Amino acid sequence: GAVVSQHPSRVICKSGTSVKIECRSLDFQATTMFWYRQFPKQSLMLMATSNEGSKATYEQGVEKDKFLINHASLTLSTLTVTSAHPEDSSFYICSARGTGEGQPQHFGDGTRLSIL
Amino acid sequence: GESVGLHLPTLSVQEGDNSIINCAYSNSASDYFIWYKQESGKGPQFIIDIRSNMDKRQGQRVTVLLNKTVKHLSLQIAATQPGDSAVYFCAENGEYSSASKIIFGSGTRLSIRP
Predict the structure, then answer these.
(1) pLDDT single digits (tens) B48-80
(2) Is residue A2 within 8 angstroms of chain B, CB to CB?
(3) How far apart are CA B26 and CA B13, in angstroms?
(4) For residue A62, what are the contacts with CB-CB under 8 A and spacing of at least 6?
(5) Confidence of residue B6 (pLDDT cuts 50, 70, 90)
(6) Which residue of B33, B36, B101, B103 is the best one to mutate when testing the A interface, meaning the one whose CB has the most A CBs within 10 A?
(7) Which of A66, B38, B64, B98 is the most exposed place for a label (fewest CB within 10 A)?
(8) What element of type H or E holds B72?
(9) How far is the CA of B40 from the CAs of A103, A109, B88, in angstroms?
(10) Contact assessment for residue B27 and residue B20, using Cβ atoms and an 8 Å cutoff
(11) Contact map slice: A 42-61 vs B, CB within 8 A
């Protein structure tokens, strides 16, 4: 079945570091990918919609200069958390849906980001 | 704004019994609904979906019911097993298209008693 892969699965780094997270659709092409953030015991909150070949669409309250999204191909989207601080520590999850109607959205297994 | 919420944050069920997880949504224009299961440390896993032109849809051991009149959605799991322990989210997709975004509810944690 369709698989979405995220890398890395976990990252721990110092405050001020920029961290890049990759999201790949392994066996299908995804024109659109989505990035979510999930704090402990909370739901998934959509951060942005990543569109292949164009700029991402950010949800209200999400800083586009803080969370850089690049969707350079139909199988890869990246999220870069720039100058990360402890409050950016969270579980980041991406999802992708194949093109065409009726395609379910598949989620990656998330990236646990911890900023010291 | 749009919101999808759940009636109960936790649910404890005896192994072998049926589980019913409820969800309310506020956007009457919602066209498509999905139930996800999330195990600890993992991403959400698709369980079952339903479009607004349907009232009921069945899968393997799961059934989703949609009541558009009261904007209520439920997930029924038959013969609940230990492997069903997880957090369950209902989600709403405003448009049934590949580009539209999914809004998640707050989640219900399902625990199974032996």
Answers:
(1) 999 999 999 999 999 999 999 999 999 999 999
(2) no
(3) 28
(4) A47, A48
(5) very low
(6) B101
(7) A66
(8) strand B72-77
(9) 25, 10, 11
(10) no
(11) 42-46, 49, 51
**Among A32, A104, A109, whose Cβ lies nearest the Cβ of B42?**
A109
Buried/exposed B45-84: b ≥16 CB within 10 Å, e otherwise? ebbbbbeeeeeeeeeeebbbbbeeeebebbbebeebeeeb
Q: Which of B34, B43, B98 sits opposite A109 (nearest CB)?
A: B43
Tell me the per-residue pLDDT of B40-56, one tens digit each, with 9 for 90 and over: 999 999 999 999 999 99
HEC-encoded secondary structure of A3-72: CEEEECCEEEECCCCCEEEEEEECCCCCCEEEEEEECCCCCCEEEEEEECCCCCEECCCCCCCCEEEEEE
A10 CB-contact burial (10 Å; exposed 0-12 / middle 13-18 / buried 19+): exposed
Are B106 and A108 a contacting pair at CB < 8 A? no
Instruction: Tell me if B72 sits within 8 A of A77, measured CB to CB.
Output: no
DSSP B16-59: TS-EEEEEEE--TT--EEEEEEE-TTS--EEEEEEETT-SEEE-
d(CA B60, CA A27): 24
As a whole number of angstroms, the distance between CA A60 and CA B84 comes to: 34
